[in-house]
Amino acid sequence: MQINGVDIKDTYAEAFGIKVSRLLVTAATKKLAKIAATEATGYATSVIGCPAEAGIDGYVPPTETPDGRPGYNIMICNSSKKQLDHELLERVGMGILTAATTAVFNALEDEDEKLKIGFKLKFFGDGYEKELEIDNRTIYSIPIMSGDFLVESELGIKDGVAGGNFFILANSQMEALIAAEAAVDAIHAVPGTITPFPGGVVASGSKVGCNNYNFLNASTNEKMCVTLKEEVVETEIRDDVHGIYEIVIDGVNEEQIRKAMSEGIKAACTISGVREISAGNYGGSLGAYKINLRDLF
């Protein structure tokens, strides 16, 4: 199977279940909202080594927010409900409450349950906090030096999917990178999904486990390292490929992951020099979701 002359490999992406929270960060300006959203989603590329996976889901114009101000939806994910509760409290408390003019609202639909993040944060107000109602939501107003920080009492969580992925194999590193950036731009138009790695692009694709060091639970994917293709016997890189990047996607459900993968792959296949689209799978050792690339089209 091909798209625009690019081979779509007959393989699948192996994804896994994760707990997901989706919240809306608003501020007086789009710039200030973006700053807060960025701070709250930092150091969250992969749960291999980070305390969460997180990213910006998309811009929300003032006409669509509860307080009539510009904002950004963000997603924060962790496999543990307890750890996700901890991450939400810290990231909202330290990344958003500390940012100028911000407010936080629940942005998750059909949540499985809600965590009392705003209720816990209200105690920062030292007894001066107030309970409000905005857009039929229970909101706490916490006085801070610059005014009041607003946060919804409860933020929803649900079972989501993490690790949807595909590899972009191209003639050169730069062609692969341009295609990866095009893919990320396309994925950003799919609500309920994030690409948690830096700029949405994974430079250091990994595999489950390690061949030579038993103290590591993940290590470099040597079969997809371009500088090793003459050295690794079981390399999965064809002769005309000299640049590879991976795109990893987390989402509120498998359906949105599939949409994001489809849009991202189609965008990547418009870039000259892209030769093949593949995906990462590990025999079921990573997760229960198998997303076949060719079934996306």
From TrEMBL:
InterPro entries attached to this UniProt entry: ForMFR_H4MPT_ForTrfase, ForMFR_H4MPT_ForTrfase_C, ForMFR_H4MPT_ForTrfase_fd-like, ForMFR_H4MPT_ForTrfase_N
Involved pathway(s): One-carbon metabolism; methanogenesis from CO(2); 5,10-methenyl-5,6,7,8-tetrahydromethanopterin from CO(2): step 2/3
Reaction catalysed by this enzyme: N-formylmethanofuran + 5,6,7,8-tetrahydromethanopterin + H(+) = N(5)-formyl-5,6,7,8-tetrahydromethanopterin + methanofuran
Gene3D superfamilies the UniProt entry points to: 3.30.70.520
Domain (Formylmethanofuran: tetrahydromethanopterin formyltransferase Ftr N-terminal) ranges: 1-144
Name assigned to this protein: Formylmethanofuran--tetrahydromethanopterin formyltransferase
Location of the Formylmethanofuran: tetrahydromethanopterin formyltransferase Ftr C-terminal domain: 147-296
Annotated function: Catalyzes the reversible transfer of a formyl group from formylmethanofuran (formyl-MFR) to tetrahydromethanopterin (H(4)MPT) to produce 5-formyl tetrahydromethanopterin (5-formyl-H(4)MPT) and methanofuran (MFR).
Pfam family, one: FTR
Protein's UniProt keywords contain rRNA processing: no
Family statement drawn from the similarity comment of this UniProt entry: Belongs to the FTR family.
Keyword Acyltransferase: yes
Lineage top rank: taxon: Archaea
One annotated Gene Ontology cellular component of this protein: cytoplasm
Assembly: Homotetramer.
Molecular function terms, GO-annotated: formylmethanofuran-tetrahydromethanopterin N-formyltransferase activity; hydrolase activity
Intracellular or extracellular location(s): Cytoplasm
